[in-house]
Amino acid sequence: MSRNNYVFTSESVSEGHPDKVCDRISDAVLDAFLAEEPEARVAAETFATTNRVVIGGEVGLSDQAKLTEYMGRIDQIARDCIRDIGYEQDKFHWRTVEITNLLHEQSAHIAQGVDAAADKDEGAGDQGIMFGYATDETEALMPAPILYAHAILRRLAEARKSGEAPVLGPDAKSQLSVRYVDGAPVEVTSIVLSTQHLDATMDSADVRAVVEPYIRQVLPDGWLNDQTVWHVNPTGKFVIGGPDGDAGLTGRKIIVDTYGGAAPHGGGAFSGKDPTKVDRSAAYAARYLAKNVVAAGLARRCTLQLSYAIGVARPLSIYVDTHGTGVLPDAQIEAAVSGAMDLTPRGIRTALGLNRPIFARTAAYGHFGRAPEADGGFSWERTDLAEALKRGL
After folding, report:
1. What are residue 181's DSSP bridge partners?
2. Alpha-carbon distance 128 to 268, whole Å?
């Protein structure tokens, strides 16, 4: 039996965190190739440290001769990402950082298992398991701790970039511990916020004075009270941030990217991967289906798992768990889910419109719980499948 009264904690990291700098560059590279060729195959990885960014991985194009032409743009793409994030430090500056581009063409052995022949469906880009999750505890149908941990850092980034809080730097981490009563989130028992600041004379109290008003803006009324424990820059000064302070790597923040630990994770990272790679696209499809199950009123919580084999188009298994909140048996909801959407890699890409340059915006503040956008961004957050799911029962 699930617990109804407990405290649960999730963390987020800002767009200036070293790993998120790398995720952003990898996804910006992906977007650049998809803008040129919607069916491009990309697996881009980025490493960043003091004064250095290294980009590697594989790219598959219909005309591989074009790869050399496109490669000349990678340096500027990386610099533009770093500039937008806001790094102009002596040892990590968008103008002076050294960019090494090691991208190369995709392995023919991988391509042969994924590319669709005339007489068969396109296969999955890899084996693996993917999870989607939704809960009705917030309007976004996301777990509250991760949703609001993201919201805090997004608000601080907005204040920094707008000039409201110019003393803040790009690198930051947040962590919320939320108390649940009768299964619903009711208050924040503790908050941890570490943010880079540009004034070396500031101490923890000074930083709290800057950030607290913004934190209060994004949290629900009453969630912060006299009992809430605050830890703002608990180690003291945080002036050196980003890859100069700690090396970064694509794909190291997979729990931040998803549900903050409130749901299982299949283990695969998202950033830098084109949507033939089910690590990414099937995780989006699983979220889409789980969210629509909850939006349809079929359950208050839903965990959904998909599994794939490389070169095989259809999922090997579909599993639904409503954690005892379903209005019908889980097996019945599972059957409705199975018939509601084509879960082949191409079917997912078509249904969610994934063959477009919409991925750089996902690189920070979570891939889930965001509003669907007019150009197709965050299409997996739509709830337009709810009625079809109910009809399928």
Report:
1. 184
2. 8
234 vs 368: CA distance, rounded Å: 29
Q: How far apart are CA 224 and CA 163, in angstroms?
A: 26
Estimate the crossing angle of helix 345-352 against helix 278-295, to 10 degrees.
60
Going from the C-alpha of 98 to that of each of 15, 246, 269, the distances in angstroms are 20, 16, 26
Q: For the whole model, what pTM was predicted? A: 0.95
Radius of gyration of the chain (CA): 21
For residues 150 and 175, give the distance between their C-alpha atoms in angstroms, rounded to a whole number: 9
Confidence band of 118 (pLDDT split at 50, 70, 90): very low
Active-site annotation, residues: 17, 19-20, 45, 58, 173, 238, 246-247, 252-253, 273, 277, 279
**DSSP tag of 326:** -
AA identity, residue 208: R
| Residue whose token pair is 């965001």 | 370
> Which residues are paired to 175 by β-bridges?
11, 192
The secondary structure of 252-290, three-state, reads CCHHHHCCCCCCCCCCCCCCCECCCCHHHHHHHHHHHHH
Is 360 exposed, middle or buried (CB count within 10 Å of its CB: 0-12, 13-18, 19+)? buried
Please, what is the Cα angle at 198 between 195 and 203, to 5 degrees?
A: 65
Q: What are the Cα distances from residue 172, in Å, to 119, 169, 235? A: 50, 8, 13
Please tell me the distance from the alpha carbon of residue 319 to that of residue 306, in angstroms, as a whole number.
Answer: 7
Interval 363-387 mean pLDDT: 97
Report the interhelical angle of 144-162 vs 204-218 (nearest 10°): 110
Buried b (16+ CB within 10 A) or exposed e, 53-65: bbbbbbbbbeeee
Structure tokens at 8: 């649960």
Identify which of 301, 296, 285 has the alpha carbon closest to the alpha carbon of residue 381. Answer: 285
| Tens-place pLDDT, residues 225-257 | 999 999 999 988 899 999 999 999 999 999 999
What's the burial of 222, exposed, middle or buried (CB within 10 Å: 0-12/13-18/19+)? exposed
Strand partners, 46: 55
Mean pLDDT taken over the chain: 94
